[in-house]
UniProtKB/TrEMBL annotation:
GO terms for biological process: DNA-templated transcription initiation. It comes from Clostridium frigidicarnis. One of its GO terms (molecular function) is sigma factor activity. The lineage of its organism: Bacteria, Bacillati, Bacillota, Clostridia, Eubacteriales. The keyword Transcription applies. Residues 21-88 form the RNA polymerase sigma-70 region domain. InterPro entries: RNA_pol_sigma-70-like, RNA_pol_sigma-70_dom, RNA_pol_sigma-V, RNA_pol_sigma70_r2, RNA_pol_sigma70_r4_t2, RNA_pol_sigma_r2, RNA_pol_sigma_r3/r4-like, WH-like_DNA-bd_sf. Residues 112-164 form the RNA polymerase sigma factor 70 region 4 type domain. It holds the Pfam family Sigma70_r2. Keywords: Sigma factor, Transcription, Transcription regulation. This is RNA polymerase, sigma subunit, SigV.
């Protein structure tokens, strides 16, 4: 949990406070970025760009308690934009992608298959699933990040999971 006093210091221009906040949430930012672009280098670039944009616009943050929500939303927007720009340019051999995913060979296949299945979802379902299962956020946190009602988050999560199950059954048969 972030210290609101540290966030307030960062808003007032304290660079050390800002770096402390970034250090607390950089892994979450990376996981979010990687879930979208599936490339380590691009995800690291997104983390860097997110930190830069957050640093420049920290004074626009109105509620210090929502710092995590605010910075993850910045990371999501940058990730989505980067993914859309580079979508047609990313040509990765399946073996190379498996090596980046990590784990045992059988686990790699499952992870790759799951990532491919998530890519088939509509963006609204994909966003909710990535935030829930890759970033371990609660329904309430997802609602704040995406600025949608909690009921809508639950609906998107349910429909996204249903679509994933359906996709996976079709592919297995």
């Amino acid at each position: 949990m972030l210290d609101e006093i540290t966030v307030k210091k960062a808003i007032k221009g304290d660079d050390n406070a800002f770096m402390s906040l970034v250090n607390q949430c950089k892994e979450k930012i990376y996981r979010t970025a990687y879930a979208y672009v599936k490339d380590e280098d691009m995800a690291l670039d997104i983390v860097q760009e997110t930190v830069c944009k957050a640093y420049v616009s920290i004074n626009t943050l109105r509620e210090p308690r929502y710092f995590n929500t605010w910075i993850i939303r910045i990371a999501m927007n940058i990730s989505i934009n980067t993914y859309k720009k580079k979508q047609k340019l990313i040509c990765m051999e399946q073996g190379e992608l498996l090596n980046k995913v990590g784990g045992a060979e059988e686990e790699k296949d499952d992870k790759l298959y799951l990532l491919q299945a998530i890519d088939t979802l509509k963006d609204k379902y994909k966003d909710v699933i990535i935030l829930k299962y890759f970033d371990d956020l609660t329904i309430e946190e997802i609602s704040k990040i995406l600025d949608i009602p909690i009921g809508t988050v639950k609906t998107y999560l349910n429909k996204g999971l249903t679509a994933l199950r359906s996709y996976m059954k079709k592919e297995i048969i």
